[in-house]
């Protein structure tokens, strides 16, 4: 198994020597200093994070509380420090689980905590009243006094006045309830509007979450990426493994069931199989899991800082974290991108 060291810039070229470890030992994904875990700036938020965020979308839904805590423990053990949840995940149960873990482990000051709000049934949308209520409710469920990065979810709210929303964000920040702000599913036009408002003194968006991966590229690879780059936004793409399809574990329509099974089956076509074959080849060349290659491809993309990845078992954490240490050659990147075209 080859795990490469290096910072954000080094991931786009071959890095330093690999290190073999016992399979049960933490994978040494290290930065330039001896014993220094990789940290990259999260845009202009002032936070530095491991280049992979652990998502909590499955907590309280497909992953129970004990397993959720094991996943979080393993993530920190491997050097991770960025946890992402949302008020709409499992109707708020995800936040409860993350909050219980933060309290029981005393880990709040070791974690960059990001929360997406705007889809909880009690406080939907981004209008001023619901925004304040949603943040207060999330803080209560999480059992903390602050959210490090607040993602504004625009996927279900295209009518709220952005100026009012950002004015409310400013009040929340001045009250110490949030530190930085990002957007989810913001259109290029709305990002431009947000930057114009920021130039007038309103809080600026520093982070962008747009679902993006090897088989879901059209929405991001266009005007949205151009605007994100022009605004120096840190992109933290969710659905990094496309509901598990890009982990390489699911190759047959008959073995996947339920809602997630339907999503995976939609990719078991000629294009999807072509992508899996390309991933298999690179994974074999580097002696790393397919999931790690999928993450490494994302991290090699311009503006991407830290993909948001969900996991179901502690063993998945070990695979995913390797992605931050894998360096793909130009040829490998080109072959993977071509397979997904």
From TrEMBL:
Domain NADP-dependent oxidoreductase: 51-337
Recorded superkingdom: Bacteria
InterPro entries: AKR_Detox_Biosynth, NAD(P)_OxRdtase_dom_sf, NADP_OxRdtase_dom
Positions of region (Disordered): 1-27
Pfam families in the record: Aldo_ket_red (PF00248)
Coiled-coil stretches: none
Biased composition (Basic and acidic residues): 9-20
Name this protein carries in UniProt: Aldo/keto reductase
Organism of derivation: Microbacterium soli
């Amino acid at each position: 198994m080859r795990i490469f060291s290096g910072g954000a810039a080094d991931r786009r070229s071959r890095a330093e020597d690999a290190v073999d470890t016992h399979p049960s030992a933490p994978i040494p994904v290290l930065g330039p200093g001896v014993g220094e875990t990789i940290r990259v700036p999260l845009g202009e938020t002032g936070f530095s994070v491991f280049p992979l965020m652990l998502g909590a979308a499955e907590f309280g839904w497909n992953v129970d509380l004990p397993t959720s805590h094991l996943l979080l423990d393993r993530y920190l053990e491997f050097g991770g420090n960025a946890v992402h949840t949302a008020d709409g995940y499992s109707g708020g149960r995800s936040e409860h689980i993350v909050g219980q873990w933060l309290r029981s482990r005393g880990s709040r000051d070791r974690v960059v905590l990001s929360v997406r709000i705007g889809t909880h049934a009690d406080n939907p949308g981004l209008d001023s009243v619901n925004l304040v209520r949603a943040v207060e409710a999330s803080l209560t469920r999480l059992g903390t006094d602050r959210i490090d990065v607040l993602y504004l979810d625009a996927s279900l709210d295209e009518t709220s006045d952005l100026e009012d929303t950002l004015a409310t964000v400013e009040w929340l920040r001045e009250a110490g309830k949030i530190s930085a702000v990002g957007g989810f599913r913001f259109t290029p036009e709305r990002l431009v509007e947000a930057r114009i408002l920021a130039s007038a003194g309103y809080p600026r968006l520093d982070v962008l979450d747009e679902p993006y991966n090897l088989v879901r590229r059209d929405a991001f690879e266009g005007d949205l990426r151009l605007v994100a780059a022009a605004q120096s936004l840190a992109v933290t793409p969710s659905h990094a493994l496309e509901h598990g399809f890009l982990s390489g574990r699911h190759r047959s329509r008959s073995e996947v069931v339920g809602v997630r099974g339907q999503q995976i089956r939609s990719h078991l076509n000629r294009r999807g199989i072509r992508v899996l074959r390309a991933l298999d080849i690179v994974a074999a060349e580097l002696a790393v899991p397919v999931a790690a290659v999928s993450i490494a491809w994302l991290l090699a993309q311009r503006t991407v800082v830290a993909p948001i990845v969900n996991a179901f078992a502690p063993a998945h954490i070990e695979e995913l974290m390797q992605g931050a240490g894998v360096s793909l050659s130009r040829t490998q990147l080109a072959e993977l991108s071509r397979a997904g075209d």
